[in-house]
Amino acid sequence: MNELQTILAETCTRLFTDHATTAVLEGAEKGEWPAALWQALEENGLTLPQVPEARGGAGGSWNDAFVVLMAAGRFAAPVPLAETILAGSILAEAGLDAPLGPMTVAPAHIDEGLALARQGGGWALTGRATRVPWGARAEHVVVVADGGGAPMIALVTAGTAKIEADASLAREPRDTLTWSGAPVVAAAPLRGRLGRQPVWAGGALVRSAQMAGGLEFLLAQSVKYVTERKQFGRPLAAFQAIQQNLALLAGHTAAAGMAAQQAFHIVERTGEGGDASFEIAVAKVRTGEAASLGAGIAHQAHGAIGFTYEHSLHFVTRRLWSWRAEFGAENHWSVALGRQVAARGAESLWPHMTER
Amino acid sequence: MATFNFELSTLPPEAEALRDEVRTFLKQELAQFRPEERARSWGGFNRDFSRRMGERGWIGMTWPKKYGGHERTALERYVVLEETLAAGAPVSAHWVADRQSGPLLLRFGTEEQRQRFLPRIARGEFAFAIGMSEPDSGSDLASVRTRAEKVAGGYKVNGTKIWTSNAHLSDYAIALFRTKVVPDKKHEGLSQFLVDLKSPGISIRPIIDLAGGHHFNEVHFQDCLVPDDMLVGKDGEGWKQVTTELGFERSGPERYLSSLQLVIELIREAGKEPPERAAALIGHFTAHLVTLRQMSLSIATMLQAGQNPNLEAAVMKDIGTTFEQEIPEAVHALTGAEPRIGSGTEFEKTLGYLVQHAPSFSLRGGTREVLRGIIARGLGLR
């Protein structure tokens, strides 16, 4: 991290410590909108960190976005920050301005498609998107849609869709949105560094950073707990079995952070029309695997108390279990990655790894 | 804030510039090498190869020129290391001296020792072994009992070292002996020595490994005289020195690449359009390889900058060796191929070699359990 990113990380830590408290997390699970948290994020320019200033953002880099999303994951921030960051950059890459306020992206699944049709001088959106994160709460939705044979990016206001509310394991909204010839605010041909499927690939990218952050929390929280909790007359930390497990958690946490950080770095370095799909796949696979193992170890270290609603461990572990499956689980991305590697051939594996 | 300090790093142009040169050299050198031979990774011992590496200036790369080194950066050396390992080159005849013995002499050796040994190591002429473990001292290294008793002109050594890789092929060993018995303080009274393995009083007995290979030895010392000028560093400072030396061997690319050849053979076997399960496994392996390489590179960059990334190095070695150990098992689970020796396809023989050797990956250079203890200490648990 450079000096500015260190300051950014400290800002995030302070902000989330103040505003993503247990009370706020519990309230969000009952459907309360954490307005103060969102307002603080916007005031600090953290909702569009890497969107150019000319397009309404903070003018930073994808590496800055990584820092913000790691922190959001660490604190289980119950707001569509990752979705807004992604939506804003998809807009900006397509040459459109990003509005303020919470946004989301659709469709959230690769098998679903939306369509744009000419309507007067503009476009109208039709189609159904399931499991849209924060679909009912976001003020705008950025969609990828087929515009008469060519992929388009469009911005629609949230009120234009029929909404069926649902939720993830972490009680975050995952709603079905249905548009029937809804007017769009702006539309442009798809372009940008996230490739032909920017919601899918970008979704995997942001989830990898959130998971890496979540794992950081699990490690820190587990170290704290086993140091404080005593059994058999000594801290749990004194037992080798506990030490060995937490060392393993440390390894997966470090690897997850590295994989996610690398993917953001390549996306930043890759210009328009570039291809970061290799590193995005690596990041989603590696962080997803780490999330599975890490959640298990953290719960084991915490014993029964960590299995209660009262203890805050589950705010992160339930998110990890949900995030690892969203925008392509490990099996999806490892198959994609494996096919990419196989197509290049056995002798190209190492040269490809070293030229990135 | 993050528990670790794994920063992304990109190799500088002068380091990348070496890569093609090394690849071209290795392509010629290893033209006849079969996958099973490449799978030996840093196990292959070939003095001619090591001399040719020395001629190109790829041993002792970071050492001062006055000791035969080349004053290149640690990151340039990193490129040479990872390319030779990825190609499965037989680096063993210079590996230990380049990685551990040379740096140890640079740090703690006398001027005379540096001038005498380092130039010939850098030329690929001197092969080194490591005399640490003993029959009763494995993970508990500080309990070594081999005695080096001060006598006129030197030290008289009696005792036995074990698991001494390539002692039968090497010229020298750097060994840890007890020069003084301090009751209840096993870390004190230890000293490191340069030992000429041809000296009278040394007998070397092979220990054959489970695969039938001979690299381990038992080295027996009986009234072996080691001259005064072969003491490395200070008498009694051996423990501090040896832990420094072990740090040199913890985080390199050798800690995740040992099974790379099997991944390559799996890709070849699976073809350009692999079925889903094979693609998933190749993708899983790739995700880990890419991540581990970044971690290893990050540590190399910290070392180059003069930092001391001990915790990061232990973490990387733990997950790296666990990963390289998992590869043959996962390939077995996917393909059900019979691991073979002697006969069979290159894929089956590569699997056969690695299935048998994988158990050693989490033992060599400190067991997984010891390593996780080090990580736990870094986390503040002990």
Written description of the protein model:
The complex is a heterodimer of chains A (356) and B (382). Chain A folds into two domains: 3-189, Butyryl-CoA Dehydrogenase, subunit A, domain 2 (Beta Barrel); 198-355, Butyryl-CoA Dehydrogenase, subunit A, domain 3, CATH 1.20.140.10. Chain A has helices at 3-19, 22-29, 35-43, 62-74, 81-93, 198-228, 240-269, 277-302, 313-323, 330-344, 349-355, and strands at 103-106, 114-119, 122-133, 140-147, 150-157, 162-164, 174-183, 186-189, 230-231, 234-235. In chain A, strand 4 (140-147) and strand 5 form a beta hairpin. Chain A contains eleven helices and ten strands. Chain A is of the alpha+beta class and 356 residues long. In chain A, the strands form three sheets. In chain A, strands 1-4-5-8 form a four-stranded mixed sheet, with helices on one face. In chain A, strands 2-3-7-6 form a four-stranded antiparallel sheet, with no helix packed on it. A two-stranded antiparallel sheet of chain A has the order 9-10. Chain A is globular and about 75 Å long. Chain A starts with a helix and ends with a helix. By secondary structure, chain B is an alpha+beta fold. Chain B folds into three domains: 13-126, Butyryl-Coa Dehydrogenase, subunit A, domain 1, CATH 1.10.540; 130-236, Butyryl-CoA Dehydrogenase, subunit A, domain 2 (Beta Barrel); 250-378, Up-down Bundle (Butyryl-CoA Dehydrogenase, subunit A, domain 3), CATH 1.20.140. In chain B, helix 5 packs across helix 7 (238-248) and helix 9 runs antiparallel to helix 10 (310-335). Chains A and B meet through helix 6, helix 7, helix 8, helix 10 and helix 11 of A and helix 8, helix 9, helix 10 and helix 12 of B.
